[in-house]
Amino acid sequence: MTTLTPGHGPQRTTGSTPTHGGPALPQEIRLVTEVPGPRSRELAARRTAAVSAAVGSSMPFFAHAAGGGVVVDVDGNSYADLGSGIAVTTVGNSAPAVVQAVTEQAARFTHTCFMITPYDSYVELAERLAELTPGDFAKKSAFFTSGAEAVENAVKIARAHTGRQAVVVFDHAYHGRTNLTMAMTAKNMPYKNGFGPFAPEVYRAPLSYPFRDGLDGPTAAARAIAVMDKQVGAANLAAIVVEPVQGEGGFIVPAPGFLPAIAAWARENGVVFVADEVQTGLARTGAWFASALEGVEPDLVTIAKGVAGGLPLSAVTGRAEVLDAPVTGGLGGTYGGNPLATAAALAVLRTVEEDGLLARARQIEELLFRRLRALADRDPRVGDVRGRGAMVAVELVAPGTTEPDAALAKKVATEAARRGVVVLTCGTDGNVLRFLPPLSIDDALLEQAFDVLDGVFASA
Ligand SMILES: *Cc1c(COP(=O)(O)O)cnc(C)c1O
């Protein structure tokens, strides 16, 4: 049975008109070959010969189509998508409004370079993001292509604004793979290993991690502030960069009060507070931006992943006077704010509003927590269930301890794929299973996916 979701538009089933996704893909898990099937195996062999072995893929099959809540592979197998291409296809894959906007824009012009000949969608997107990011103050934006590039530019902007150099990041942080963002990312393997030397003036403070440290938010914040004060010195500190809910680091939700205390300290000391909302941003957590759920108004927000429905776009949005600090021409990039991507992003914003996707993310949160708490009650290897909106994870441990069980996470993800569910792992210890379904997925498919996962856990 397909559950109709209020405010979310009609759900798709076999033969119905698509509201999300290109072709009318049946919204079901359906395997017609072994996984991976023969076509995927053939492509995998070609890939091994032609693609760098350093580029990994967690799924063993090749994509053919995707939409609503499914990914269909080249052998015709249909999988429930609980990953959204790492939190990117929040409004659904090939969402109709995105496809239409990109198609129309491609027919008009594909590129002029905003630094050469500007165009209106760039300006309109900056206006919209100024409204949607937390804080009632004058804001401006600059656009780039990847999340890492947005983070790098946020640091550049903060340095230009403050005349200071140091940057503080947190334990378990993930900020990207460029040289500066590798320095900011916590985890060595595989992101940094063998790639040094890294950029200087990056310092790491302890995060609030309720499952492991048991500290309340203010106490955890005092611990981090002591590090910033004593090891860096506020007078040297340009920016604090923090994910409101950590992404790759394990979907760690800081204890209440942690982020407000850090933000208050930043404000008192003239430090630019940067919320890296590349993963949490754009409706994923049930708010436009997760900072709002913490009662925090960042000076700068970095935005990417979910913003443009799969087209490469990132943004730094924040206080107008901070964005204006670098010299004219100091920010930019050939493809930054490419017109196909800005058109897609405006369509994403419209889709979130028209399909009621903030409310839909909160409904998905309820469903995920219900299923995962029931699993945790049965299975002592599930140590913690946490997250916000359609960004929820379980941390897997040796029963009764906080000792990470990465092998189990890997086994579950691998077996889930074989049974038709795309699920991703994360965490510094690799022992976290994360759930990031597109908000266009329907309840029936989500329940089917969690039935499969229950079976996988029972047999793992
Ligand atoms: C994915 C991610 C990045 C890096 O984004 P890319 O587009 O892969 O460069 C930065 N910060 C956070 C929080 C992320 O999740």
From TrEMBL:
Q: Which InterPro entries match?
A: 4NH2But_aminotransferase_bac, Aminotrans_3, Aminotrans_3_PPA_site, Class-III_PLP-dep_AT, PyrdxlP-dep_Trfase, PyrdxlP-dep_Trfase_major, PyrdxlP-dep_Trfase_small
Pfam short name (any one): Aminotran_3
Tagged with keyword NAD: no
CDD domains tied to this protein:
OAT_like
Q: Which domain of life is it from?
A: Bacteria
Q: Quote the PROSITE patterns the UniProt record gives.
A: AA_TRANSFER_CLASS_3
Question: Keyword Translocase: yes or no?
Answer: no
Q: For the region Disordered, what residue ranges are annotated?
A: 1-25
Q: Which family does it belong to?
A: Belongs to the class-III pyridoxal-phosphate-dependent aminotransferase family.
NCBIfam families assigned: GABAtrnsam, PRK06058.1
- The name under which this protein is listed is (S)-3-amino-2-methylpropionate transaminase
Task: Name the gene for this chain.
Answer: gabT
